[in-house]
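[job 0417] fold request received: Ribonuclease 3
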Amino acid sequence: MLDPKFLEFLDEKYGIKFNDKSIVERAMTHSSFDNEHKELGIGDYERLEFLGDAVLEINISRYLFKKYPDLPEGKLTRLRSDIVRTDSFARFAKEIQIDKYLLIGKGEEKQGARQRHTLLEDIFEAFNGALYLDQGNEVVNDFLKKVVYPHIDSGEFSEDTDFKTHLQEKLQQSGEVEIDYKVIDEEGPDHDKKFKVELIANGKILSKGLGYSKKHAEQMAAKRALEEL
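[job 0417] inference complete; emitting structure tokens
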């Protein structure tokens, strides 16, 4: 059965209270757990994943359409693809503690499936499908405002907010500048690694950035440098 602490966490952190607790339990259940506990009659997440995939795509598409009114279709598509990719959804899933509370069979548990990005992506989609069925699209969108949209607003995925390019253009206004990004630290296990990058211009350290990938850390370092210039 789904740990009540997960429901308490959702309520305290996001103000979400499921009317039908069985639907979120199903969204959080892997088929391996369902097969081991048929007597519970929970089912698994897969049908809800199908629905959640569509719910997330339409909401994220609408958000991007409104946020970037001058961005052409091709760039909007590439931007959306970057947001809805496996690694991104897996990070969002961990942010709401899906990895901690999902129900999974003993065999899959031993094989490390709880930290498998493809599974976390699927469960995140299923969770949103369950939320949509239980409370409607407005509540889903409010949830995404707290979990997904802030990452878009910060420039993590932004097609038109390339902080590295903006920084290079600004620094080179007064002449040629040699810019280098150096990884100075890596934190966390392989499945959840974070990178710390140092931004160096003409031999001088301008800033540091932390990110879920080297590319993201470089962008965050450039963003900080722009803010301090």
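[job 0417] notes: The domain at 162-228 is CATH 3.30.160.20 (Double Stranded RNA Binding Domain). The chain has a mean pLDDT of 91.
[job 0417] exit 0
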